[in-house]
C-alpha cells in the first residue's frame, strides 16, 4: 500500500490513470453481470441453475400441448388409438425439442434437420386427421420449428406455407373451423418470432466471439507494452550499472573514494530502476524529456563518450504529454544503443522544431548499424506510431549512426488581447 501511495500521490496524471483503469474494470464487470443471462443463449447449460431455467422455459412452452394430452385422457378414443396417439405425441415432442433446443446450441447436419422437419410435419398432419381437431395445435409447433432451424430466406416462405397446410388439414377435420381461425395468427407470429430469436442467438454468438477476440488483443497489447517498457528501462539502467561497475573496479585499488562514489551511483541507479519497473508494470510511467536528457548526460559521461547536448532544449509548451513521452523513450533507447553497441567517441543530441513537428536527432561517430533492427528500435517505432509520430534511422553524414524521432506539436489558437485605451 505504501508503494501504491508513492506511485500516485502528488501526480495528477498517475491518479487519472489509476481511475481510468479501475473504471474500465468496473464497467467490464458490470457488463458481464448484466449480460450473464444473454451470454447463455445458444449454449448448453453449465450449472444446475441454468438447467432449471431452461427446463422451466421448456415446460412453459410445451404446456400448449395440453389440448392433445387432454384429448388422450378424456377416453374418447379406443385403447389402441390412445396408445398410438401417445406414442406419436411423444415422438413429435422429442423431435421438436431436438430441433429447437439442441440445434440452437449445436448445429445438426442438413440431412438431419430436413428429415426431422419432414417427420414432425407428417406426424402433425396424421395425428390431426386421425385423432381430431384438438391436435391441430401441432402445426403451430411446426411453424415455430421452421423459424428456429431454417435460414431466414427459407423460413419466410416455409412458415406461410405451413400455415396454409394447417388450414388445409383443418378443413378436412370436422368441427375444427373455430379452432382453425384461432391458430392461424399464432402459427405465423410464432414462426416469425422464432426466426427473430434465431437471429438473436447468432448475433449473441458473434458478440461473444468478438468479446473473446477483443480480450485476447487487449492482453497481447498489454504484453507488448510491458515488454517494450521493460526492455527500454532495464536495458538503459543495466548498461549504466555495468559501466559504473567496471569504472569502480578500475578505481578501487588506487582511488577508493572515487570508487565509493561510483558504487553509490550504482545503488541510486538500481533503486531508480526498481521504481521504474514497478511503474511500468502498473502502467503509470510517463518519462519526460528533461529527465531523459539528464540521464543521457550521465550515461554518456560514464561510458567516456563526449556528449553534445547544447541543442537539446526541453521546454516545449506545445508538446502534448503522449508525444513528449514518446520522444523521451526515443532518447533513452538511442543513448542506450550508443553506449552499448556503437563504440562511439562523440554523441550529439538535438531537438529541432520544424513547422508543426518536433524532431529529436541522436547522432554518433561509431561503427554504425551492423544488422537489422532489434527489439528496442522496433518497440520505439511502435511507440512513436501510437503518438502519431515516426522513426527514421540510417548512417550519419560523417559515418556512425543517426536516429530521428518526429512527433506533432499541438498549436493553440492565437488569443487576441483586448486593446486598452490610453489614459
List the helices and strands and how they pair.
Elements: H1 2-8, H2 12-34, H3 36-39, H4 48-62, H5 66-73, H6 79-105, H7 110-131, H8 138-149, H9 152-171, H10 177-251, H11 256-282, H12 289-302, E1 306-311, H13 321-342, E2 346-354, E3 357-364, H14 375-386, E4 390-394, E5 401-408
Parallel strand pairs: 1-2
Antiparallel strand pairs: 2-3, 3-5, 4-5
- Structural class category: alpha+beta
Number of strands: 5
Helical residue percent band? 55-70%
Strand order of the largest sheet: 1-2-3-5-4
Strand content: 5-15%
Mean pLDDT: 76
Largest sheet: 5 strands, mixed
Transmembrane segments: 51-67, 79-99, 111-129, 135-152, 179-197
Protein name: Sensor histidine kinase
Domain Signal transduction histidine kinase subgroup 3 dimerisation and phosphoacceptor: 222-288
GO molecular function: kinase activity
Amino acid at each position: 500500500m505504501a508503494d501504491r501511495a508513492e506511485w500516485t500521490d502528488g501526480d495528477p496524471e498517475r491518479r487519472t490513470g489509476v481511475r481510468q483503469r479501475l473504471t474500465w474494470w468496473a464497467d467490464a464487470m458490470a457488463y458481464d453481470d448484466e449480460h450473464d443471462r444473454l451470454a447463455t443463449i445458444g449454449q448448453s447449460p453449465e450449472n444446475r441453475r441454468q438447467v432449471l431455467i431452461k427446463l422451466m422455459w421448456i415446460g412453459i412452452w410445451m404446456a400448449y400441448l395440453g389440448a392433445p394430452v387432454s384429448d388422450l385422457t378424456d377416453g374418447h378414443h379406443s385403447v389402441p388409438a390412445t396408445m398410438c396417439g401417445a406414442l406419436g405425441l411423444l415422438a413429435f415432442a422429442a423431435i421438436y425439442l431436438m430441433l429447437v433446443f439442441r440445434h440452437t446450441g449445436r448445429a445438426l447436419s442438413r440431412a438431419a434437420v430436413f428429415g426431422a422437419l419432414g417427420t414432425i410435419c407428417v406426424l402433425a398432419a396424421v395425428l390431426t386427421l386421425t385423432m381430431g381437431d384438438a391436435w391441430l395445435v401441432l402445426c403451430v409447433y411446426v411453424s415455430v420449428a421452421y423459424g428456429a432451424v431454417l435460414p431466414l430466406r427459407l423460413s419466410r416462405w416455409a412458415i406461410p406455407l405451413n400455415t396454409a397446410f394447417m388450414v388445409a388439414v383443418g378443413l378436412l377435420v370436422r368441427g375444427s373451423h373455430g379452432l382453425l381461425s384461432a391458430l392461424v395468427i399464432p402459427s405465423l407470429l410464432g414462426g416469425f418470432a422464432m426466426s427473430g430469436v434465431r437471429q438473436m442467438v447468432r448475433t449473441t454468438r458473434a458478440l461473444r466471439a468478438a468479446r473473446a477476440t477483443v480480450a485476447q488483443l487487449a492482453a497481447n497489447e498489454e504484453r507488448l507494452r510491458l515488454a517494450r517498457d521493460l526492455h527500454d528501462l532495464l536495458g538503459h539502467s543495466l548498461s549504466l550499472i555495468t559501466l559504473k561497475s567496471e569504472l569502480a573496479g578500475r578505481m578501487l585499488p588506487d582511488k577508493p573514494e572515487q570508487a565509493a562514489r561510483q558504487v553509490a551511483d550504482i545503488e541510486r541507479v538500481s533503486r531508480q530502476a526498481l521504481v521504474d519497473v514497478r511503474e511500468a508494470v502498473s502502467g503509470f510511467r510517463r518519462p519526460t524529456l528533461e529527465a531523459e536528457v539528464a540521464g543521457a548526460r550521465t550515461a554518456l559521461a560514464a561510458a567516456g563518450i563526449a556528449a553534445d547536448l547544447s541543442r537539446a532544449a526541453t521546454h516545449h509548451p506545445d508538446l502534448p504529454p503522449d508525444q513528449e513521452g514518446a520522444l523521451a523513450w526515443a532518447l533513452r533507447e538511442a543513448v542506450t544503443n550508443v553506449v552499448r553497441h556503437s563504440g562511439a567517441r562523440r554523441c550529439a543530441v538535438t531537438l529541432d522544431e520544424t513547422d508543426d513537428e518536433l524532431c529529436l536527432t541522436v547522432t554518433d561517430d561509431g561503427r554504425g548499424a551492423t544488422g537489422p533492427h532489434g527489439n528496442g528500435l522496433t518497440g520505439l517505432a511502435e511507440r512513436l506510431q501510437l503518438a502519431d509520430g515516426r522513426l527514421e534511422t540510417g548512417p550519419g553524414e560523417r559515418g556512425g549512426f543517426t536516429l530521428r524521432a518526429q512527433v506533432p506539436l499541438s498549436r493553440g489558437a492565437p488569443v487576441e488581447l483586448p486593446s486598452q485605451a490610453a489614459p
